Amino acid sequence: MSDPIVQLQNVRKTYTLGASEIHALNGVSISIERGDFVTIMGASGSGKSTLLNMVGCLDTPTSGKVKINGTDITKLDDDKLTTIRRDNIGFIFQQFNLIPTLTAIENVEIPMIFSRVPQNLRKERAMRTLEQAKLEAEYAYHRPNELSGGQQQRVAIARALANEPPILLADEPTGNLDSKTGKSIMELLVRLNEEGTTLIVVTHDQKLTEYSNKTIVLMDGEVSNDIY
C-alpha cells in the first residue's frame, strides 16, 4: 500500500503575538490518501487556514512532521518548499485572484511560466485546461471583468490545473458564488477528483461535505471528531 499523499504527524504551530502565544494547531495528526476528496471544516480561528498553509507548503510547523507526496517538508528551505509546492499543489481561492489585465488564457499560463514550460506548449496546455474546467472557448481571450463569477472561478481552476498537480487545495471555492453556480463548480471538482486528483476543500459550508468522502472538523486547533 502506498504512503498517504498528505500526512501530518502531531503538528503544532505556535505564533508569538507580543507577550502572548497563540496555538493555531495543537497536535494535529491526519492522513489523506491519493484520490481522496476531503473537506476541512471549522469556525473562524479553528486552525483551518493554518492547516491549509501547512499542506500548501506556505508554512512549516513549530513541531511535528508534514509529508507531501512522500517528502517531509518540515526542515526544507524556502526554495525547496517552492519546488514542492510548484510540482505537487494547485490552489483555488475564494477571491479568484486573477490578474485583471490578462486574458483568461494568459492567467492560466502564469504557473507554467514559473515552471519554464516552453512558450509553444503553454498556450496549448492552457486551452486544454480551460476546456477541462468547462470554460467555453469563446471566453478564453476575455479579461476577468468580462466574465461572470462562475466563469472566473473556472479560469482559477484551470490555472490551478496548469502544472498538472496531484493535489488541489480549494479555500472556500463557492464562497463568492450563487448557489446554482456553486453547485456547478462543486460538480466540476467532483469530476476532477474522479479523474484522480486528490482534492482538499476548506470551508465553513456544511453542504460541501456532501461531495467529499472524508470530513475533518477542527476546533481550537485540534481535530474534534473522527475522519469519516
TrEMBL record:
InterPro entries: AAA+_ATPase, ABC_transporter-like_ATP-bd, ABC_transporter-like_CS, MacB-like_ATP-bd, P-loop_NTPase. Gene3D superfamilies: P-loop containing nucleotide triphosphate hydrolases. It holds the Pfam family ABC_tran. CDD domains: ABC_MJ0796_LolCDE_FtsE. Residues 6-227 form the ABC transporter domain. One of its GO terms (molecular function) is transmembrane transporter activity. It comes from the Archaea. Keywords: ATP-binding, Nucleotide-binding, Transport. GO terms for cellular component: membrane protein complex. Belongs to the ABC transporter superfamily. This is Putative ABC transport system ATP-binding protein. It comes from Methanococcoides vulcani. The lineage of its organism: Archaea, Methanobacteriati, Methanobacteriota, Stenosarchaea group, Methanomicrobia.
